[in-house]
Amino acid sequence: MWLINTDTLTLEEVTDPFSYSYAILSHTWDSDEITFQNIWSSERRGVERKIGYSKLAKTCEIARQRGLQYAWVDSCCIDKSSSAELSEAINSMFAWYQHSKVCFAFLSDLSPLDTNGTISTTSFPYSEEAFRRCRWFTRGWTLQELIAPNIIEFYNSEWTQVSRKADCLDILSKITGISYLVLQDSSNLRHTPVAVKMSWAASRKTKRIEDRAYSLLGVFNINMPMIYGEGHKAFRRLQEEIARETNDLSLFAWRVPHPTESESQMFRGLFARSPSEFSSCATITKSVIRHDTQQEFSLTNKGVRIQTKLYKHAENAHVMSLGLRLASGTPVCVSLTRTTDGFVRNEPWSLEYGQAVKGPDTVRDMFTIHIRKDVTPQEDSDIRRQMHRSFRIAFELPASLKLEHVVPDPDYLWDSVHSTLLSNDPSKSSAAKLNITISGTDGNFSENFYLALIVGWMRSTGKPFAVLYGATESADSVRGSVRHVLPKDFPDLVGDDVDWGNSQQDVFESALSTIFSDSRFQATEVHFINAKTMVLHLSVRKRSAYVARFHAKMETCCNDPDVITYHVSLSGSLSRVEGHKAVSDAYSQVPATSSDLEG
Length: 599
Fold this sequence. Notes:
alpha+beta; Rossmann fold; 3 domains; seven-stranded mixed β-sheet; 30% strand; disordered C terminus
């Protein structure tokens, strides 16, 4: 660290700055600032005429009056020609301000006092509005310079002291949004949600894009290298570093303005793009409700990995609670959408999904999910296309039938919360298979039924399909007969050894065409029959059977002209028939080719 000797106005390098007593300057830069080289050089001709030199001289003068031998001024105490020194200074700056004996905040645009004017209070000689208009409150770097020092003296454009930080905490809090407790003691930063701290910087500006992130390092107690030229990536890196140090989910509580025609990105990653997106987070608080407690999360090469509860929301959307509350008491939540590459944030302009969290039958089991860190505008368009030609499956089962398992193939296309098969590329032919296990229970009867639901879309015809069969396990496991077991020669559209890449699209089309041309491959209804014969006495026998029927029905939906989806309802019933004739009638519905395992 370089300090200025307040007697000689020369630079002195110190290795342990915290063993020195020094004053520090906080100001907004002008175009005529002095540099490290200006002060270091023995030739100072013309330097003393610079505006920046007068600020240096005045800082040293007041410091001497305070009995301080040293001072620090950012414009000339950092050798910016050395990237290593600049990086060290930026990473240390909060601590340097925090350990200063006194900070002089020079408000160059705060006019001299008008003794004839009306002042708002006797303890603070300016109106709140006049104070608020100072450029010092709009700059990125001065945020930490307000929070870190214990003692700040405010000076107007004539270097007249107008107040001290301790004497105007209420006004400072109103102007900046920073809580009274943090202004009073910077150690209270650790109790403040990340989103709230971000909100303090939401409207502040810096000359360089990267500095919007770098100026916040001290506020979040983060250290990271400086890479000027990285642009908005700097703020992304800052958030990643914060995520490694805390499990505070308010890091993800940002929002964007409601979309317009010029800005209409529907899907985003979990990280914000600038502090401005936290502008509405000033009043967010941590929830005191037990099930809203913060979850552990981590960064991976697939995005943010988090174990969390998901709540059903709109079609193809989920809600994740962040364990926070707005000032109104409304839970803070984000909407998520499943894609082939993990989850993304949906509707990034909203944080209010309280009804989804509080509604009946919405609580889900814990899921371990990966949420992408960022989504580009091009990727946003690609995700919208994945919703196009997706298949949503609705299971409409009575109380006697229960959905036990769904095994998707391929599994990365399956959204288990909304029972939706996504489209990997809606411009190409596609197919997917669900291996479904449904249990049936009625009194002493208990049986598992195995189904295979196969859906897809054929590019050449533009037609979708949904077919239903008894799976291979059905013929082996169900003690009875099955109508419509999956034919052995049904095209293998999703097998592990099948590769339908770009070079194989024509072959894939040919395989799909057999489904449309062969009636054996177009079943939509499956019957399971399980018969029993009871011996009542030597000459009387009673015959009964349980019949399970399953039916798949597909409808095309087009709520959005650019997004067509297909809804497949899988309904079922379980009934009991008694008597030889009724049982025979039930079996008559099963083709002779079915395996009759009646016992």
